[in-house]
Amino acid sequence: MSFSYEEIVPKEWVDYNGHMNDAEYNRAFSLATDAFIDYIGLDEKARDHYQYTIFTLETHTCYLKEMHEGGFFTIQARVLKYDAKRVHLFLTMLNEKDELVSTQEEMLMGIDQKEGRPAPFPKAVEEKLEEIFEQTKDQEQPKQVGRQIGF
Questions:
Q1: Closest CA to 72 of 123, 120, 13
Q2: Could you give the number of structural domains in the chain?
């Protein structure tokens, strides 16, 4: 994987059950997504230059193992699919033992800030997305992709 985000579970993220609260998994994925957006070439300076940003349209989180205060984790990102304006992103959270802890599937949309509407990615960003996609395109689809809630 070419992109990763690392963090340690702070005390404030732990709930009354003694493990990381579900909302904090989503916070961690959100922080990792922000770092990924910077990584693909849309950091604050580029967003100002292009007058372009990315919105999150949808997420789906799976909780697979508990994380506790002080626990180290890494989030990796995989581009499952993309087009001129959208990215289907899959994030995996791994603990210090490299065990899969949680996943988040996301649909992101590129937005022209002047128009307030979806718009194609700047060329450099699209090229970076293609590069990332090419690294994993032949890998098997993660089993959490496309899941729906049910019994």
A1: 13
A2: 1
Cα–Cα dist 19/22, whole Å: 9
Q: Per the structure block, which two tokens stand in for 107?
A: 């649909």
Per-residue model confidence as pLDDT tens digits over 5-34: 999 999 999 999 999 999 999 999 999 999
Whole-prediction pTM value? 0.93
> Which one-letter amino acid corresponds to residue 86?
R
Q: How far is CA 110 from the centre of its chain?
A: 15
Q: 3-class DSSP state for residue 67? A: coil
Tokens found for residue 40: 């693909």
Answer whether residue 115 is part of any domain: yes
The three-state secondary structure class of 12 is: helix
CATH of the domain at 8: 3.10.129.10
Which residue is associated with the tokens 């090229």? 127
